[in-house]
Amino acid sequence: MKGDYSGPWTKQKNENNTPSSCCYAIQHTTRRQQQCIQTQTVVVVVPKQKPTPLKHSSKLALPPCHIHTNTFSFVPMLLVLLFLVASSLFTPALSHPIVSDSGRRLSPANQTFRPGSELNKLRVVQSYLKKINKPAVKTIQSPDGDVIDCVLSHLQPAFDHPELKGQKPLDEPERPKDKGRNNTDIVGDSYQLWSDSGESCPQGTVPIRRTADKDILRASSIRRFGRKPRRSVRRDSSGSGHEHAVVFVNGDQYYGAKASINVWAPRVTDQYEFSLSQIWVISGSFGHDLNTIEAGWQVSPELYGDNYPRFFTYWTTDAYQATGCYNLLCSGFVQTNNKIAIGAAISPRSSYGSRQFDIGLMVWKDPKHGHWWLEFGNGLLVGYWPAFLFSHLRSHASMVQFGGEIVNSRSMGYHTSTQMGSGQFAEAGFGKASYFRNLQVVDWDNNLLPLTNLHLLADHPNCYDIRQGRNNVWGTYFYYGGPGRNVRCP
């Protein structure tokens, strides 16, 4: 949903606001880069502009011209292995203090160089990359450093699952009926940074953000790469480090949820923290049998290596213990669309006191096959989570939740300054505070219904808060967010 909005709520915008400066700056190519582009068989997007790095982001290095490969080059790997072996023969194990972006020192146990364990780690990383990165029929270079592979639909990671082997993506399901209002959301031709130049994946393929070795090595552990940290899922637990400002409904049977989510680029001050805004579709006892389906946008330096807001999905059937993953980093979610890359940066994003941008998301259960589908914008199907992945969600959801979540690691001994939403409290209002609008749920008969009897929850309202409202244009909505550490949030 891109573009200026129409309707009474636009009166809140400043008449003299200048257009937002969304993420475009000239990228000049050297003669060598031009030769690379001309001689490769892959398609490389050379954007007109180079994205302005966010204040707290880490720039991703653009890959060299020989980027079209999904496997390790054996020669560089052999050289690395020989170096490690030689180092082990002539030098002792060394340990040097390493400081994270937040200023905290990482555990010395994670810094000691042990050739045997390093060799094993490289083998594990190589094996994982071979499994997760599929052969591409076309490759697109994004201006933010991402590499997008156009993979034949039947070769995507989902079909590595034993119950999906040999199958093909399903046809489109029946969409929920919206009897309450006319949908005025507008979907533009470009939703993400990688496709701003007009490049796209061919029909019959799906765009997949390529995983690099540095992505895996950034993770707190290789085993947990692509997964949320194990944690208590009860909302009254303050020991997990996860803090929320959300609204939710429960006490009924739910078959889906829909909302439009304002997109910002909040500051994340520690590599192992994140800030996200999403929809949760939940079932289970809030114990180890918890089932969730999640979709929204997030900033996660650990997962992506930068501070761009990115479209993401997640699922779990055991409260984040061993099942599920982000995006397409395991077999599970089946993508059916060639225009949206899950995990890619969203473009544009909102600016303080200026133009606002939001994305429409809907998750619902197909009445015919029972799978949970995901829609982006107004009618763009992204794909589905097969019903067999779940236990409780195989029938219906018992709770639907909307809002923001951050991780507070207290790495410096006090509350994090990681922002939620826009980094402003809810009272700042339109153009300053982040919002969700047009909140709806899907009932047993596949109808979209406006939300009533909402519950509001802010774990730490002096750090991040939330305020609800309702009108004829936005339906049920709320503002939420905050700056994190401040005089009232030590």
From TrEMBL:
Keywords: Membrane, Transmembrane, Transmembrane helix. The keyword Membrane applies. Residues 161-182 have a biased composition (Basic and acidic residues). Residues 236-490 form the Neprosin PEP catalytic domain. This is Neprosin PEP catalytic domain-containing protein. Gene3D superfamilies: Outer-capsid protein sigma 3, large lobe (3.90.1320.10). The lineage of its organism: Eukaryota, Viridiplantae, Streptophyta, Embryophyta, Tracheophyta. PROSITE patterns: NEPROSIN_PEP_CD. Residues 161-186 are annotated as: Disordered. The chain crosses the membrane at residues 74-95. It comes from Prunus persica (Peach). InterPro entries: Glutamic_endopeptidase, Neprosin, Neprosin_propep. It holds the Pfam family Neprosin_AP. The keyword S-adenosyl-L-methionine does not apply.
